[in-house]
Design brief:
- By secondary structure, the chain is an alpha/beta fold.
- It has two domains: 140 residues, Ribonuclease H-like superfamily/Ribonuclease H (Nucleotidyltransferase, domain 5, 2-Layer Sandwich); 42 residues, no CATH class.
- The protein has seven helices and five strands, in the order ββαβααββαααα.
- A hairpin with an 8-residue loop joins β1 and β2.
- The chain is elongated, with a radius of gyration of 18 Å.
């Protein structure tokens, strides 16, 4: 069972992000303030949970939370400021959208920037230690997955409904075959050099095809 938070009686906000390692799409972040007596057996680091369990507990988290918020930073800003800064920016946006000012912020990982005058603590693998961070990881992950499922209808060749924009072999093969879309992160290595000659060379007459129903 996860500890609810690091410091009780402080309205502590747990923060986490989803999508840092993706080749396409935005990074999402969530901030969650839970009541001190919060318990949810299925809750864990979202990466260790089954997809159906994440979606099952999302409304339970939202109903139980004292306050929660989800925010995103798009691929354009990611390319502009780099993924670390974009991830922190998304977390700051989520915190700023909370209806209650937290007394402390606890963040998954080891990098963060001060948010106003609120003290914070970074915790490596914190989403497997504290429920407020784990809850934030579930919200960030599921809301981002929903967003990528929507983009998958627009550009079905890249199978974002399955890979969510992560650098899977099938995703990289699609990039090699059809080129990049307006949602790809151009500051990322979309096809590593050691794989370039393994994929079919993009053909001049092939372009990313938008779903006509969504064009």
């Amino acid at each position: 069972m996860l500890q609810t938070c690091m410091y009780q009686n402080k309205h502590e906000a747990g923060c986490d992000e989803a999508g840092r390692g993706c080749l396409a799409g935005p990074v999402f972040a969530a901030a969650v303030i839970l009541p001190d007596n919060f318990k949810l057996d299925l809750l864990n680091d979202s990466k260790k949970m089954r997809d159906k369990d994440r979606y099952h507990i999302r409304p339970l988290i939202e109903k139980s939370a004292i306050s929660f918020a989800v925010a995103m930073v798009d691929h354009v800003q990611i390319d502009k400021v780099n993924i670390l800064n974009a991830s922190i920016e998304a977390m700051h946006k989520a915190i700023s959208s909370l209806t209650l000012k937290p007394g402390h912020i606890v963040v998954d990982g080891n990098r963060f920037k001060n948010y106003k005058s609120i003290p914070h603590t970074t915790v490596v693998k914190g989403d497997g230690k504290y429920a407020n961070i784990a809850a934030a990881s579930v919200l960030a992950k599921t809301y981002r997955d929903d967003y990528m499922n929507m983009l998958a209808f627009e550009y079905p060749d890249y199978q974002w409904n399955k890979n969510k924009g992560y650098p899977t072999l099938s995703h990289r093969k699609a990039i090699a075959m059809f080129g990049v879309t307006p949602y790809h992160r151009m500051s990322f290595t979309l096809i590593p050099k050691q794989l370039e000659f393994s994929f079919e060379t993009p053909q001049k007459n092939k372009k990313p095809q938008k779903n006509k129903k969504n064009a």
